[in-house]
């Protein structure tokens, strides 16, 4: 009886090549598994395609809502952003995809898992750390690290030589990753950071700034304990809420990012990310936190967010530290409940008001008019004590100058 292998299958160029390559170089029954985290029509026809190219079985695992609730919400509540720009779209999806691959492998009695991540990329780390955390005895095969194929052009040639349809046009061979949260683009003109992206050709979810409407649109979001539950007064299932905001944000060219980032393996890479709905949610969530969280909690939470971001980006989702940091974040979100209104216009998100039953904003304190809760004279004593270390340091320097100790 042949051993079984589960392949993370998308039907894109890499995995279209990998199935016949595995058949030529290994003696496995190949189980192609597509985990649907919001790829949309990209999953259409994949079963027939996988079987035709050599797979013995195909799985389609639909988990859009799970992706949002268990992976997107934790990074949203943390305000996790990598290198000030990237909202972790691919990073958050990979551990879920790998988890589903492990579940299929254990169900099928497979001995190995394969993926199409390159030896230069982050995804190999994210896939494999998840497998090691959840099923350490499974073998991992990463063709990009061992085959003779050196480029996307080589992959296209490989398929053409075997009369296998190429799943893309040669002049549009961007490397793309799409899920419910974002769409990433790499390759072609983006490989030179001196080139401006060809946005008219590149963008799929969003209008360009120039093609965005000339009239602004308002959107109102309602949160409960840091989780979005309503948009424009309507309740949505988690995935449907993101889709709704993707449509609105894409229309107004919100959430388009051009980033040269530091990969886990030490290489700088350049990509363009479209995250329209996610960018709206992050902006609204931040506005509400500024209203509801005290100064020290907000400040320390930023430190936690930085570390949690690093863990997620580098594939360490299933670790005790990530779980502990997420537990801290959940505690901070107990009062992050309320409504936020935003104005969308030509790629911009403009705050248009926020309210919460847990708001720490006190109009009596904030007003220039003296109220019962604040006596201006009290500030004198506060500043005296707050500035005491500065005063003591200055007096020490003056004394040392008089005695010549500083000479």
TrEMBL record:
Assembly with partners or alone: Homotetramer.
Catalyzed reactions: L-citrulline + L-aspartate + ATP = 2-(N(omega)-L-arginino)succinate + AMP + diphosphate + H(+)
Pathway membership, UniProt: Amino-acid biosynthesis; L-arginine biosynthesis; L-arginine from L-ornithine and carbamoyl phosphate: step 2/3
Organism: Brachyspira murdochii
Family: Belongs to the argininosuccinate synthase family. Type 1 subfamily.
Domain Arginosuccinate synthase C-terminal residues, every copy: 174-392
Enzyme Commission identifier(s): 6.3.4.5
Protein name stated in the entry: Argininosuccinate synthase
Binding residues for L-citrulline: 86, 91, 122, 126, 175, 184, 261, 273
HAMAP family named in the record: Arg_succ_synth_type1
Subcellular location: Cytoplasm
Binding residues for ATP: 8-16, 116
Main localization category: cytoplasm
Binding site for L-aspartate: 118, 122-123
Keywords: Amino-acid biosynthesis, Arginine biosynthesis, ATP-binding, Cytoplasm, Ligase, Nucleotide-binding
All residue ranges annotated as the Arginosuccinate synthase-like N-terminal domain in the record: 4-165
Keyword Transmembrane helix attached: no
């Amino acid at each position: 009886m042949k051993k079984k292998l589960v392949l993370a299958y998308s039907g894109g160029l890499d995995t279209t090549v990998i199935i016949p390559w595995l058949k030529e170089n290994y003696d496995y029954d190949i189980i192609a598994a597509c985990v649907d985290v919001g790829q949309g029509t990209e999953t259409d026809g994949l079963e027939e395609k996988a079987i035709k190219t050599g797979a013995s079985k195909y799985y389609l695992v639909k988990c859009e809502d799970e992706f949002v609730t268990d992976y997107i919400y934790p990074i949203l509540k943390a305000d996790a952003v990598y290198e000030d720009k990237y909202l972790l779209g691919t990073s958050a999806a990979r551990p879920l995809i790998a988890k589903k691959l492990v579940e299929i492998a254990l169900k099928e009695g497979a001995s190995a898992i394969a993926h199409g991540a390159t030896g230069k990329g982050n995804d190999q780390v994210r896939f494999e750390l998840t497998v090691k955390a959840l099923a350490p005895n499974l073998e991992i095969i990463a063709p990009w690290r061992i085959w003779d194929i050196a480029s996307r052009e080589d992959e296209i040639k490989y398929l053409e030589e075997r009369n296998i349809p190429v799943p893309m046009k040669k002049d549009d061979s961007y490397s793309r990753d799409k899920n419910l949260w974002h769409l990433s683009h790499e390759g072609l003109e983006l490989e030179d950071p001196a080139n401006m992206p060809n946005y008219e050709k590149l963008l799929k979810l969003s209008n360009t700034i120039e093609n965005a409407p000339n009239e602004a649109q308002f959107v109102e979001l309602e949160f409960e304990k840091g989780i979005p539950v309503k948009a424009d007064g309507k309740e949505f299932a988690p995935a449907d809420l993101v889709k709704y905001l993707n449509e609105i944000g894409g229309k107004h060219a919100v959430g388009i990012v051009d980033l040269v980032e530091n990969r886990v393996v030490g290489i700088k890479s350049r990509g363009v990310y479209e995250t329209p709905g996610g960018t709206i949610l992050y902006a609204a969530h931040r506005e509400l936190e500024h209203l509801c969280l005290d100064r020290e909690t907000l400040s320390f939470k930023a430190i936690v967010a930085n570390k949690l971001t690093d863990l997620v980006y580098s594939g360490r989702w299933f670790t005790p530290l990530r779980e502990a940091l997420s537990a801290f974040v959940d505690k901070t979100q107990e009062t992050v409940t309320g409504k936020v209104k935003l104005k969308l216009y030509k790629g911009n998100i403009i705050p248009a008001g926020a309210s919460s039953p847990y708001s720490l904003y006190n109009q009596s304190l904030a007003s220039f008019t003296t109220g019962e809760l604040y006596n201006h004279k009290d500030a004198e004593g506060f500043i005296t004590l707050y500035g005491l270390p500065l005063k003591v340091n200055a007096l020490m320097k003056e004394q040392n100058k008089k005695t010549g100790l500083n000479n």
